Amino acid sequence: MIFIILNAAIGAALIGFSFSVDSVRKNSYEGNTLTNLTLFLAAMFIINAVSLISIQFGAPRPLCKLLTRITYTLLAWYSVSYCDFILTFNVEKKPRFLAVFRWILNIAALIAVFFVSGFISGVSMSKFSYTIASKTVFDKALFGMFPMTLFSFYCVFFIVIIPFFCSLMVLVRAENTKSRLLHQNLLMLCLAVFSSWLCYGVFIVAKLYQPLIGTLILATMLPSLLLASRISTNSEVWGKSLALRTFIRCLVIYFVPALVEGLIFLGLHELLGNSVIFYILFVILTGGVVTGWVFTGRYFTKLDIMRDSRYGDAFEESITSIDFTDEPENINKALVSTFKKYVDTTSYRMVIDAGTGFLESIFDNEGDEKIAIPADNKAFDVLLNLKHPVVFRKFAEKDYSIQSVRAEVLELLDSTKSDAFIMLNEGRRIVGIIFLGPKSSGNTFTPYDYSVFTKLYSNFFVVGYYMKNIMNESVVGTVNREIRMSSQIITSIQENMDYITNPKIDCGYRMVPAHNIGGEFIDLIRLNDHRHMFVIGALNGKGIAASMGMVILKSIIRTDLAETPDFKLLVQKINYFIRTSLPKGTFFAGTFGLIDFSTDTMYYINCGSPALFMYNSIYNNVIEIQGEGHVLGFAKDISNLIRVKKVKLSANDIVLACTDGLIEARSLRGETFGKTRVQSQMLENSSFPADKMAQFTYENLVQFSSRALEDDVTVLILKYKGAGAAQKSES
After folding, report:
1. Highest-pLDDT range among 31-40, 110-119, 508-517
2. Span 390-419, mean pLDDT?
3. The pTM of the whole model exceeds 0.70
4. Cα dist from 686 to 362, 367, 618, 654, whole Å
5. Where are the alpha helices (DSSP H) in 354-478?
6. Positive or negative: CA dihedral 443, 445, 451, 453
7. Which residues touch 422 (CB under 8 Å, ≥6 apart)?
8. Separation between Cα atoms, residue 86 and residue 195, nearest integer Å
9. Which segments of 233-275 does DSSP mark as H helices, in order?
């Protein structure tokens, strides 16, 4: 009964596996064929299980023989289909003669099974045996050891002989191909066929000791199918290093635990037989083996010798752990080491915007020629329009979408001796480019590399922006590279915003850092004539580190806004960037707002801002329209933690947004400035322009504190004038 269940279980597992095959290899010839082969083999296992059930429970003999004949007809058809797959692997147009040959073999199998006398003369199954009676052809075959019946010859012919000749043809093709990757994959397909032969050999020997093993003959097809599935997605040449690592991984993670488990079973069975104690001890010890396997597996997979080609997680961890407070040259060395270790690139070079119309290389190795690339290369515009900042040589050579600038892209790769580059752009402006040399293994850059680079793009952008603003010698000093960035530079970046020119609104603000420079900022971003966005907030921390994070975050907001028109989704992306790309522990508290002048509506999301106040001109009072909120940077997904709110604006309404430096500032007595004083200030100064209101609020805070401020203070005032002001402006 157990063998019937095994056949059914394997069939069900293969059906599930077919979905995985189909999703991973969707829309490819190999993928469609492998999906069909997987479902074909699954159907064979299920039909075989039904056949065994009919034999086991005494169904009519003709029915049992019919189901058995169908199973072994399908076995031959499957084998022929698999041979067709390996012969046409990575071939766009299949030769017509193969289809003819395939039909000849399929018809021959059908005739042999159903019309040759004595092929299957009877089928029987008991508790200890499974027999398919067939006419004997040779008394001794297979090295003079076994009798050869029509049935056994049929199995050898379709499982061994036909695949053998097909494998020879594949080997000839492999030797004549110029592609190292295709050569390797074809050899691996031949190895897959050999694995099934090996399994079939074990199957024949095992039948001598346990005749019921004969019910699992279809399992000899599994190794070749599973290996072919793996090979069909392989896009890299396996060098000696990777092959050794893979072998050691398999040895430590799979074979050793399996061997230990087998020895435990044999030892306990020898001592205790099939007693209850045997089963109890076996379950307990198996639990110990599994636990040890899990923990040792985690440890070994972190070692370099155990690292496989899926380097994404380790690469991300290494990139995000780079210390940006270190010397710039050390940061660059860490980057070079990380790329070479995980990506296997032979060289790493970064060029940054020098402010001269050229992108110039930094930290070139001794003997490397310093390069300068014109920033106005037309290829950059085309690639940015395609939203394709990551470019590989294979893409540049073959993709039709860049045909107009193909020559320029290839020239860029050739001149820098690179096989890939990553553009770091701020909107339409290139901040820097990372060039990566060919892989030392001889592999090309793969779709997997592309997915990793795309995922970590924001991290690369941080590096580029850092290098641009820190290493540009026109901005920083060079004495021991200790002077990083002056407060004048930070201030100029902070105040680089799209001031609101719409006559419906008057805007004013004050940003006063407690220690020359800090992480607080305001940004005003024009979306179109009728919509304007504002951001006010602060990154935790003080001084140069916080201000550098502010510069990067401000740039990322504008970059993401160009690609993400959805207001809430933009905030979610900013949160993910802070969480994954800025130093660990960084968070942002502030407010994102959007004013639609066409509908006189303000939309806003509070992300940890202490308060958002609104003066209503009709009722002549100030209310708090939103207090507190969820700061950005603590959770990866905040979609359920933030909400977009809106408020209708009328003429003379005033909105005040601020950071906690205003509300939580303390006097000499220890009193906080508080929300009540902010509301009073709004009422007292409501008749003044927005800029004056911001100035008076700050001056009142200074007078209240009577000492130097301990925290940065940022205030944004939006005074809505309404439609009447717009009409006056037009007249």
Report:
1. 110-119
2. 88
3. no
4. 53, 66, 13, 8
5. 378-385, 393-398, 406-415, 447-455, 457-471
6. positive
7. 389, 390, 391, 433, 434, 436, 453, 457, 460
8. 14
9. 240-250, 256-272
